[in-house]
Amino acid sequence: QYELLSRNCNHFCQELCLRLGVEAPPHWVNRFASNADATVTAVTYARDQTHRAMAEITSAATAAWEGLVGIAGSSQRESRGTGGGASGGASARAPSAGAAHAGSPGHGGSTASDSTAPDAART
């Protein structure tokens, strides 16, 4: 199978000379093809490793993002379920007079199905 860099006419000549038992052409004749083939192999390997690393980084970043979003959503649900009291950490975020009733029905708080943060729902 002919390949411009790794199995070209110079390789054929070397193999033919070896089988005929005569001296092969000088190594410099095929030096460019050999060096170019090694370069192509190295660049291809580097490209493949870069793509693999980028895929792993993307996967890790996606997992981290989903984890952070899940934690944030979980803490919002927990703070909504506590009625806006100090146990959910809402006292630092909601110092208004209606904070004690923010999570209870009919007092302007957000509901469990609401994606708006409790503080934003009161404004």
Dominant shape = rod-shaped
- Give helix and strand order, one letter per element, not per position: HHH
Structure class: mainly alpha
Overall helicity: 55-70%
Radius of gyration: 35 Å
Beginning-to-end CA distance, first to last residue: 75 Å
On the 0-100 scale, what is the average pLDDT?
76
Short description:
By secondary structure, the chain is mostly helical. It contains three helices and no strands.
Q: What structural keywords apply?
A:
disordered C terminus; rod-shaped; mainly alpha; 123 residues
Write structural notes for this entry.
By secondary structure, the protein is mostly helical. 55% of the residues lie in helices and 0% in strands. The chain has helices spanning 9-20, 31-81, 118-122. The longest helix has 51 residues, at 31-81.
How are the elements arranged and paired?
Blueprint: H1 9-20, H2 31-81, H3 118-122
